[in-house]
């Protein structure tokens, strides 16, 4: 039996509907509808059950009495932004998801009768929501109080208390997940900050060190063509001797140069950038196994000062180096010696 009562689309009552003969999706065309009552309607057999209440943006009252639907979720209520009162007496509604109330921004009164849900942590939110919700008054008809609500176990026979089940099975689970995720997040953040603080200035140079190392290891034996005769490694505070951006030199020039010239001074030894350039040049020296590194000391540095710089100290013991003369009369001889080292082996 089907009954319709309609007055200017303000009220619709449907009872004992045969789902095989009537398509309830037509309801969503009543865009001015304010009150809807469905009684003994099996929504689970409707092909378009999730769209029945779509477009009902002016609906204020929804009453579902002895209706069947497997799940109450957000797709049912996404357009019910004006609903103030919902009365539910559902049969075989095994899950009620949090998204069901997500779009009900105007909801003030929710009446629940004979709620049958699975013993699942996915349904546990409803208990806490019903207790703490201030905007919505939640009325339990059967059972009369939330503490007496039961749930369906996996075997379908046992009906444990849902509140106690949630406290035992779900609160601990959510708490542990929250604790674990928070702990991991804090640890990851601390590691990231520490890594950035310690290694931040080295990341770009180390990237090029690795790239150049692989390039040298994999390159063929054919003669390599260089863009520059020399890459100059120096302290930024010695720029008045020779000026060019240090980052640009590292990223664009070092491995495109035939030689690397390190201008060593006390300020050079204190520079982290210069330390990386020295390391890069040493790696290249080991990979190419030829005289690509030239050391120029801009000032006298005692063996004690060099002893803390193991890489440079070993190079000084095993390789010849040049001293920058402070006597202007010896500058020409210095440049001649430097040019002799920079000159390609094929030149006479």
Strand content: 15-25%
What's the arrangement of strands in the largest beta sheet? 1-2-3-5-7-8
Round the Cα radius of gyration to an integer and report it: 40 Å
In angstroms, what separates the terminal alpha carbons? 111 Å
Spans where pLDDT lies below 50 across 5 or more residues: 1-8
Average pLDDT over all residues? 77
- List the secondary-structure elements in sequence, H or E: EEEEHEEHEHEHHHEHEHHEHHEH
Q: Count the helices. How many?
A: 12
Structural features, described:
With 348 residues, this protein is α/β, with parallel strands linked by helices. It is 36% helix and 18% strand. The protein contains 12 helices and 12 strands. The protein has helices at 74-77, 99-102, 125-132, 162-169, 171-199, 203-218, 246-253, 266-270, 272-288, 303-306, 310-318, 331-342, and strands spanning 11-15, 35-39, 61-68, 71-72, 85-91, 95-96, 109-113, 137-142, 228-233, 257-264, 293-297, 322-323. The chain has a 6-stranded parallel beta sheet with strand order 1-2-3-5-7-8, with no helix packed on it. α6 (203-218) runs parallel beside α9.
